[in-house]
Amino acid sequence: MNRAASALIAAALLASPVYLVEAQTVPATTAADTAPVPRARGAYSKPQPVVVTASASGISATLSAPVDQSEVGVAIPFTLTVVAAEGVTLTMPTIGPALGGFEVRGVEHRTLGNDEVRTESIRFLATTFESGLVETAPIEIVWKDGSGVEQRLTVDATAIEVSSLVGAEFDPAIYRDIKSAVDIDLGQPVWLWLTLGSVAVLAAVLIALRARRRTLAARRLAPHEWAIAELDRLERDGLVATGALHAYWVRLSDIVRHYIERRFEIAAPEQTTKEFLASVSDHPMIGAEHRHLLTDFLRAADMVKFAAHQPAQSECARGLEAARGFVLETTPSTSDPAPRPIHAEVLS
After folding, report:
1. b vs e for 164-198, b when ≥16 Cβ sit within 10 Å of the residue's Cβ?
2. Interval 247-259 mean pLDDT
3. Which end of the chain is more exposed for a tag (fewer CB within 10 A), N or C?
4. How far is Cα 56 from Cα 336, in angstroms, rounded to an integer?
5. How would you label 320-329 residue by residue, b for 16+ Cβ within 10 Å and e otherwise?
6. 341 falls in which pLDDT band (50, 70, 90)?
7. Overall CATH class of domain 1-164
8. Which residues lie below 8 Å from residue 15, measured CB to CB, with a gap of 6+?
């Protein structure tokens, strides 16, 4: 190799950037420190499991996830496991559609046990569209000891480091500098365009705020409260009077399906009507009369949505009343007055 070639290779090596990554030892996650350490640019940190525990005399609870790092929109599997000793009466919490900064779907409840201990587990998938350290909400478990005294055990919140798909940092070196201003003939007075732009921005902000308030309100409401509010809003919108029957029945059946999923913890967002009814038929808290009513109701909705059936206004009203009656009859409250009974022929 001649001297000129050697000089060129040496110059190329000197001009190339060299990155040094210092090896780190990641300590085990504990209940007192569940927040992961953000990764520095150019470094790699292997995801670690997240485990948060809480215990009292005769009972222990663990919330776990396989990783402490994820990306926006990626589903993270969580498992809540509660172990209770013999003689302990346990009431498992309800994992709703939101848990802190995460949206929850796919909730599955399992029970195991033997002569001495009882193990309950709730598995669910959680996603988020926020970035940074996103926390779950604390989970409270109600239990009674052998003397019947009610007590509460709280599993603390944990945090997952969520990274954005567009990157967390901006490198100005890869972008060209801003050029000088260019005059553009808009053909209209500038104040007119500024006014129209301001109105458009204000309208977009108002729409976003309204949607956010509606989402937050839905998260705070119990399943039956949410369903009744949505049914009342559907009735006020007057879709039947304007002839929008397809949109009316799509919203009506969606309200009923989402209520059943939230009320009875049946995770079936993508199931067909046949698959959904099969899931409902296996649920111990849904009786035969309600299963029969749901079958007639969802089939009537499918006739409108997929078979172009044009029901009369009276049939649409009966469908709405059947949905409202089902929600009232399955409301988990013993202090409210008894709801009106639902008759199977209401949709016939």
Report:
1. eeeeeeeeeeeeeeeeeeeeeeeeeeeeeeeeeee
2. 88
3. N
4. 34
5. bbbbbbbbbb
6. very low
7. mainly beta
8. none
